[in-house]
Specification:
This protein has 212 residues and is α/β, with parallel strands linked by helices. The protein has a domain of 137 residues: Rossmann fold (3-Layer(aba) Sandwich). 35% of the residues lie in helices and 14% in strands. The protein has seven helices and five strands; from the N terminus they run αβααβαααβαββ. The strands form two sheets. It has a three-stranded parallel β-sheet. A two-stranded antiparallel ribbon has the order 4-5. A hairpin with a 2-residue loop joins β4 and β5. α6 crosses α7. The radius of gyration is 20 Å and the shape is globular.
Length: 212
Amino acid sequence: PEVTLGKRCARLDLKVLEERDRFEVLLAGADVLVHGYRPGALDRLGYDEARRRVISPGLVDISLNAYGWTGPWTGRRGFDSLIQMSSGIADAGRNWKGVDRPVPLPVQALDHGTGYLLAAAAVRGLVNRRLTGGGMTAQLSLARTAAMLWEAGGGGEQTLLTPRCDADLSPTLEVTPWGNARRLSPPVVVAHAPMFWPCGASSLGSARAAWK
């Protein structure tokens, strides 16, 4: 429910001609495309960066992968916990806890941190397009976010996360496709800018592939 909040979730099979046509119509009308496929995946389907730019010249095109865009590991699959293991973050956790096994962070920090960077890249791209009329390309990776965390150094005194309590959750009961749920409250509240979303959480493939 947290991941799909405010999103209409549709599916397209880009190996089917009619669905390729629909994808191209959607792409032509898109402001931002964010994709997390392995390098070359869209190229093999006929949608490399040059082709995407032809379909949508002003597109803000943002791509994410696991291990970076150069080097021998660029095509490897991966996700947050694997990158924590291979980057040394989990080893730092082992040292901190004084145990003999890798200990990843208690949160998916690389996913969340990279998500903020993706959002910042999208905003920057939209500003650039407004000023110049052109699109923009950005490439991010979970491994680069891990490296940035290392470069930032330790955060000082280590503190344990407090156990979850009822105050962490919204008092409103929300109806979702997975049953009734209470959403985590936002960590920050901005005056005169309440959080809102156009639709509730939805299951994958539940919406039609259309802008409206």
